[in-house]
Amino acid sequence: MKNTINLSTIKEFILTNSLHDNVMLMLHPSNYNKLANSKKNKSKLLRISGINIIADDNNEINENEIDVLEVKFN
Fold first, then answer.
1. Which of 18, 40, 56, 66 has a Cα at 20 to 30 A from 24?
2. Contacts of 9 (CB under 8 A, 6+ apart)
3. Best CA proximity match to 33, nearest among 56, 14, 10
4. Which pTM value belongs to this model?
5. Are 56 and 28 in contact (CB under 8 A)?
6. In a 10 Å sphere around its CB, with 0-12 CB exposed, 13-18 middle and 19+ buried, how is residue 21 labelled?
7. Going by C-beta distance under 8 Å and a sequence separation of 6 or more, which residues neighbour residue 40?
8. Alpha-carbon torsion (30, 32, 44, 9), positive or negative
């Protein structure tokens, strides 16, 4: 993904890929921080359209990319 990551691009990504609450999205830490800081409540917990957004703490995601992680329920 080459676009700048913001609320609009994440919502579009979720809709385009028909994602549901059985996944999480992982963002580069700088993208995550910009998105978290842009929210009115300044919470570090991000949930958009029912999907949790987390920061990549392992340096696996490039800036301005979104990774989809499957969530497995027991």
1. 40
2. 1, 3
3. 56
4. 0.84
5. yes
6. exposed
7. none
8. positive
> Rounded to an integer, what distance in angstroms lies between the CA atom of residue 23 and that of residue 34?
21
Among 59, 71, 6, 70, CA closest to 32: 6
The answer to whether 48 touches 7, Cβ cutoff 8 Å, is yes
Q: How many Å apart are CA 47 and CA 32, to the nearest integer?
A: 12
Looking at the predicted structure, is the pLDDT value of residue 42 above 90? Answer: no
pLDDT band at 71; cut points 50, 70, 90: confident
